[in-house]
Amino acid sequence: MNTSRRWLTGAGIATVAISAALFLGGIGYAHWGAEEAHSGPMGPGMWALDCPMREYGVARGGPQALGPVEMSSPTGEAPSLAMARAIAQDYLTRYGDSLEIAEILEFTDNFYVQVKERDSDRFALELLVTRDGRAIPEPGPNMRWNVRYAGMGVRHYRSTGEEMPISPDAAVSLAQTYLDRTMPGATADPEVAAFYGYYTLHILRDGRIAGVLSVNGFTGRVWVHAWHGEFVGREEP
């Protein structure tokens, strides 16, 4: 009887912990064509029950991988921008010499890293460097929409010859329509990064980076990267 009671108590604590992580995670996911934006605890469009990220838990402070993602070992210390670049660069060695860092944004919860192909100059994938110094594939569009570097590490590398029907300009327009409805006063950065299957761009407020979002190049869905925290600074090669 005591064993059963302890097991039930432990299960209850685990359930509460998982629920809290989901509540705090704030995953942004919305369909531009919907009459109303998805809404959740962080406001319209910032969290949705139909978000296709059931495989991953995203908690304040960075994504906690629940699937077989490829990640580096933590360094055990909070990295600077320069350290974050070194950690991300070391992670990219598993791809050989084909990829390079295009941009690093520092946020309060993690570092966001855009990676592009050296030969084609096409954007390839997105990484996060956590505050404990670990590189991990970014969850969200990078794992769910990338049709060439399809998340989950290099084992799942694949390619497609199908071009995105939505143009970069159209992606910016879709993003702005979404922001007008869910984040009044925010603007979509006209400079977009074209990945394989989607676009990523900055969310701006008063000309300053306030966040990141992606637009699916086939469906027009908008996904806010709501796991970064507040913007701190930027580093480019």
Features:
237 residues, alpha+beta, 6-stranded antiparallel β-sheet, 5-stranded antiparallel β-sheet, 15 strands, 23% helix, 30% strand, disordered N terminus
Structure description:
By secondary structure, the chain is of the alpha+beta class. It has one domain (25-235). It has helices at 2-25, 81-92, 141-144, 168-182, and strands at residues 30-31, 39-40, 43-44, 57-59, 62-64, 99-107, 110-117, 123-130, 135-137, 187-188, 193-194, 198-205, 208-216, 221-224, 231-235. Strands 1, 10, 11, 12, 13 and 14 form a six-stranded antiparallel sheet that branches. The chain has a five-stranded antiparallel sheet with strand order 9-8-7-6-15, covered by helices on one side. A two-stranded antiparallel ribbon has the order 2-3. Strand 12 and strand 13 (208-216) form a beta hairpin. It starts with a helix and ends with a strand.
Please describe the topology of this protein.
Blueprint: H1 2-25, E1 30-31, E2 39-40, E3 43-44, E4 57-59, E5 62-64, H2 81-92, E6 99-107, E7 110-117, E8 123-130, E9 135-137, H3 141-144, H4 168-182, E10 187-188, E11 193-194, E12 198-205, E13 208-216, E14 221-224, E15 231-235
Antiparallel strand pairs: 1-14, 2-3, 4-5, 6-7, 6-15, 7-8, 8-9, 10-12, 11-12, 12-13, 13-14
